[in-house]
Amino acid sequence: MTENGANQAIRPFRIDIPQAQLDDLHTRLDLTRWPDELPGAGWEYGASLPYLRALADYWRNAYDWRKHEATLNEIPQFVTEIDGAQVHFLHVRSPEPDAVPLILTHGWPGSIVEFLGLVGPLSDPRAHGGDPADAFHLVIPSVPGFGFSGPTREKGWNVNRVARAWAELMSRLGYERYAAQGGDMGALITPELGRVAPESVIGIHVNAATLGFQPLGPVPEDAVAQLTDQERQRLAAIGAFTTEGSGYMAIQSTRPQTLAYGLTDSPVGQLAWIMEKFREWSNPSAELPEDAVDRDTLLTNVMLYWLTATGGSAARMYYEGRKHAQSGWFPLTRSEVPTAVANFAGDMAIRHWAEEANTIVRWTDFDRGGHFAALEAPDLLTRDIREFFRSLR
After folding, report:
1. What residues does 359 pair with on adjacent strands?
2. Contact (CB, 8 A) for 165 and 144
3. Where does the chain show beta strands of DSSP type E?
4. For residue 39, is pLDDT > 70?
5. Mean of the per-residue pLDDT values for the chain?
6. S-S: 315 plus which of 97, 199, 256, 373, CB 3.0-4.6 Å?
7. What is the spatial distance between Cα 372 and Cα 73, in angstroms, rounded to a whole number?
8. What does the alpha-carbon distance between residue 101 and residue 122 come to, in Å, rounded to a whole number?
């Protein structure tokens, strides 16, 4: 995917949300039309009404977007056009001259906000009690369709197309040899990047890995018998997710446009859609999302969807993945790029199936953290990334 001329221009970017947008958000929060809830329902039927009311009140009256906007703007940001889409990214050059480039990819319902706590330790380990030999130059893009990389304007933005865009982005930045890491949807895009650009990607590190790292469909009894107790628990969790936890995926992969009206028009609708997943996917020991992730960080992540009106555009990634399954979600070929899997609490990757499509050279299980590892256990994720790529530099 080579583009010429002005299309290759990389332009500095600064977040500057008009005050009118923030005023509009406050008005909408003030005018929220709340649904009813069955007595004692809790989270059984979806996002809890008392919880959402309290969080929306905090969002309206205590959360300070300008503070977090300023924090984001402390990190160098850029935009460039790739394959017809605007790609927004953070780019942090390490002070260490021998640093290895590393591209970090978020998932849904995440954003670049997930990686803010990793920027310092990964780019400047000397200043954070680490070995300067472990330093990385960081490229942290917003996936096309998400946040300031959205909305997309064309059909077909699936995992493979994003991976090809990442290869072009890294080439455009002058990085011919680089590392790659991602979680959730990023754990689909990152291995695909290794398939798209195997001559450039020195290694792949994933967390919250699903497709390509776990079985699809029923598993024969003889295969189950060979699993460890922990792997059987993960297999059962995959079954429970398929039965009870995949409703969001069914909607986003079939009718994202219908969903988009509610996400774009109602801030509480967007808030509920995201917070239910943070509550469900964070460390299983966390009763509420903010027991795992700071409340302001959660809301800053929601704000990137709300302010850019990309709830529906982000959902389209699921539609494109289902529609173009043979080139979208599922790996067609085995990747020979060295791959590390980090399973945090609640993650469901199983090595037997991961090895079918990936060259697994490192497998680490953690008893804390969760699906949003960069936010929940940044120390563990940072250490695992450093240790894995240390041997591949």
Report:
1. 338
2. yes
3. 10-12, 77-82, 85-92, 100-105, 136-141, 178-183, 201-207, 338-343, 359-365
4. yes
5. 95
6. 256
7. 23
8. 10
Residue 389 has which token pair?
């790529």
**Alpha carbon distance 250, 256 (integer Å):** 9
Annotation says 371 is catalytic: yes
Round to whole Å and give the CA distance between 340 and 388: 7
Position 320 scores a pLDDT of 94
Per annotation, catalytic residue among 68, 205, 371, 384: 371
Alpha-carbon distance 254 to 322, whole Å? 8
- Contact at 8 Å (CB) between 339 and 359? yes
Residues 6+ apart with CB under 8 A from 38: 45
- Average pLDDT on 87-96 reads 98
Structure tokens at 33: 């039309």
CA dihedral 145, 176, 77, 209 (to 10 degrees): 50
Residues 312/263, Cβ–Cβ less than 8 Å: yes
Threshold 0.90, pTM exceeds: yes
Annotated catalytic residue 178: no
Please tell me the predicted confidence (pLDDT) of residue 216: 82
56 close to 30: Cβ distance less than 8 angstroms: no
Tally of residues, the chain? 393
Measured CA to CA, the distance from residue 234 to residue 223 in angstroms comes to 14
DSSP lists the bridge partners of residue 12 as: 78
Sign of CA dihedral 393, 102, 375, 353: negative
Can you tell me the distance from the alpha carbon of 86 to that of 175, in angstroms, rounded to the nearest whole number?
A: 20
The rounded distance, in Å, linking the Cα atoms of 313 and 319 is 10
Which is it for the CA torsion 302, 305, 309, 311, positive or negative? negative
Residue 177 CA: distances (Å) to CA of 82, 94, 200: 20, 16, 5
pLDDT at position 331, please? 60
Residue 230 CB partners (closer than 8 Å, separation 6+): 365
CA distances in angstroms from 337 to 188, 215, 360, listed in the order given: 14, 21, 9
Catalytic residue among 83, 184, 347, 384: 184
Return phi, psi of residue 140, to 5°.
-125, 90
Cα separation, 142 vs 122, whole angstroms: 18
Quick one: tokens of 275?
A: 């917070």
Dist CA 316 CA 199 (whole Å):
30
- Given 318, 319, 324, 347, which residue is catalytic? 318
